[in-house]
Amino acid sequence: MEVSDKSSNCVFCSLPKTRIVLERPIGFVIRDAFPVSPGHSLVIPRRHVGSIFELGADEQLALLTLLSDAKLALDVKLQPEGYNIGINDGPAAGQTVAHLHIHLIPRFWGDLPDARGGVRWIFPDKARYWP
Length: 131
Hints:
By secondary structure, this protein is of the alpha+beta class.
C-alpha cells in the first residue's frame, strides 16, 4: 500500500496490506478493529488528512464512491437492513485517530430494541424526539 503525505506515527498510514478488504486510487477499506456490528468498516483516504474538509471536492466524491463500493460488498456478504455512516471530525467530536476515516456500520433488525434516532444517540437526552 502506498500512502501519500504519510505520517510516521499514524496507524492508518502504516497498516499492513492484509488489513485491506477493498482499495481504489483514492483510498482503501478495512474492518474496524473494535467493531460495533458485524462488517463495521472504515473508509480511509490514502492521503494523510485529519478532516473531510481538507479534501478537495473531487477527492470527497471519490471517497464517497469508495464508501458506496464498500456498502455494496457488505450488502452481498451480510445483507444488512440498514447502515449508520459517520465521521468523527476533530477531537471534540470524538476523533481518536487524526487521519480521516468514515465509519460504515451495518445495521440489522433487532440489534437494538429501538434503533430510532440513530446517530442522535451521541446525546442521549436529545436523541428521542418522537412521542
